[in-house]
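As a warm-up, study this chain.
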Amino acid sequence: MKTIAIISVAGGAGKTTMTASLAVLLARQRRAVVAVEMDEQNMLGTWLGLGVVSGSGLATHAINRDGAWHASTFRNNDGVLFVPFGAVLCEALPSFDKLLESNERWLADSLDEISLPQDGVVLIDAARFPGEKAMQAVRCADLVICVARPDPAGFAALAWQINLLQQHCKALKVVLNCVYPARQLHHDVIAMLKARIGSDVLLPIRIHLDEEVPRAYARGGYFFDHAPHSQTSHDIQGLAGWLEAWTADGTSA
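Now compare it with the structure written out below.
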C-alpha cells in the first residue's frame, strides 16, 4: 500500500479537485483507492460525486473520542472509499489540533486500520502546509505532491516553504495547475521555480487552465468525462499514469 499526500502552500491551488480526479482515475484502473480528507473545508466528498457534505468523519470522531470513524465512510460510484474530515465547528478545531500535536502518529495509526491490498493507494487531501493537519499527512506519506499555481503568489509561497517541506517528505514532487501558455508571466514563473526548487522536484506534467473543469463539476461530473479530448483531460490522465507507475515501483522520474 502506498500513501500519497496532496498538499498546497497557498489557497486556491486546486488540490482537492486534483485529489478527487486522481482517486477516480486510479480506481478506474482497478486499483483499491481510499481518499482521506485531512482538511477542515470538508469538500472532498462533493468533488467525488457524493453530493453531500458529511457531518461526521475522522476529526469529529477524534474530538468525541469515540473511535468510530469507520462508520462515517462512503464509497462513490467509481469504487473510491472516502473518509471525510467531518463538519467541525471553528471553536472545536483547536482541540483537534492539540490532539494531533500530542501524537504525531495519529493519522498514520488511523490509516493502519484500513485494510487494503498490497497495490492499494491512499490519497490524502491535506490542509494547507504548514500546519499540524498538513504535517500529519506529510509525515506518513510515501510521496507528497504539492499543487501550485504558476503565479507570483504561488511562487513566493512555495519558495518560502520548500526547505521545510523537503525536511519532512520522504519524496516530494511539485505539480503546476491552471497553467496558461499564452501568458508570458506563467513561463517566467515556471523558469524561476525550476531555478529555485530544481527540475527533479518540479514534474514536467502540468495541468492547463480549462473552463470545462468548473462547468463539469457544476453538472455533477468529471471534466475528463465531459471533455475527454481537452488538453486538461490529457494532462490529468498523464499525471494519473505517472502516479500509477510511481506506486508500482516508487522511482518514476
